[in-house]
Design brief:
Layout lengths: L1 H19 L19 E3 L4 E3 L9 E8 L7 E8 L5 E7 L3 E7 L2 E11 L2 E6 L3 E5 L13 E4 L4 E3 L5 E7 L9 E7 L18 E5 L5 E9 L4 E3 L3 E5 L1
Parallel strand pairs: 2-9, 11-17
Antiparallel strand pairs: 1-3, 3-6, 4-5, 4-7, 7-8, 7-9, 10-12, 12-14, 13-15, 15-16, 15-17
């Protein structure tokens, strides 16, 4: 009887050890490839776009294009009127070009967002700017300045009693640009003092008071035409 139990135990041990040596197959993790940023092609950045075929006296229809992005199934094309900040988005474009109709004689910014069916992650291209030429125009205003710092709603330290404001823009004609800085504690900004006019720099240090909300904007002039930035705001501690 003891011999039988001994044999049974040996068999069970053999089976168990044999099973433990079996390799458990590895489960391969699915690799999700996120979309890449698209490279913009046309209209080129900071240029005047001349469209020969006009839809009407005030509108032009043309094709905007970008390079195909890796791991991408569709694109969203965003276009903003830089004067009134109105924006339109064309969703789920499956090609790397799209025909649009825009009002002539205005500056626009645009970007492309790459999307994939395999993930919710997206990738957005650089933002480019262009002027859509109008009939008879020989000079175009600078692109509306972009306010860089302080950002909208940012809390700025008042410990030094000063804050540095910075901005950037380009002129599509390559003209020299001068700036006027408007800043105050009311959203209705008054004309700037003389020392804040005809600036040739894109950064300026200004005095500030503690616990105050400031509003600011920048005017860019090329000698013939002018443009304004959006109005920014920041607060001090």
């Amino acid at each position: 009887m003891k011999i039988r139990w001994f044999i049974v135990m040996i068999c069970c041990f053999t089976i168990l050890t044999g099973c433990s040596k079996e390799e458990i197959p590895e489960i391969e993790e699915e690799v999700i490839r996120v979309p890449s940023k698209a490279e913009l092609v046309f209209p080129e950045n900071n240029t005047t776009c001349f469209i020969a075929d006009a839809s009407t006296d005030s509108l032009s229809t043309f094709e905007m294009s970008w390079k195909q992005a890796a791991n991408t199934h569709a694109y969203d094309l965003r276009i903003e009127n830089m004067i009134d900040q109105s924006e339109v988005v064309y969703n789920d474009i499956t090609d790397n070009a799209y025909s649009i109709t825009l009002k002539r004689g205005l500056p626009y910014s645009w970007s492309v967002t790459s999307k994939s069916n395999d993930t919710t992650e997206t990738a957005t291209s650089e933002t480019w700017s262009f002027y859509l030429a109008a009939e008879g125009n020989t000079n175009y205003a600078p692109f509306p300045p972009t306010l860089l710092s302080p950002g909208m709603g940012v809390l700025v330290s008042s410990s030094t009693g000063k804050a540095t404001l910075s901005w950037q823009t380009e002129d599509p004609d390559g003209d020299e640009i001068t700036y006027s800085l408007y800043i105050g504690t009311s959203e209705t900004l008054e004309s700037p003092p003389e020392e804040y006019q005809n600036l040739t720099v894109t950064e300026l240090e200004v005095p500030i008071e503690p616990e105050t909300v400031y509003y600011w904007k920048v005017k860019a002039t090329d000698g013939e035409n002018s443009s304004f930035s959006q109005t920014g705001a920041f607060r001090t501690d």
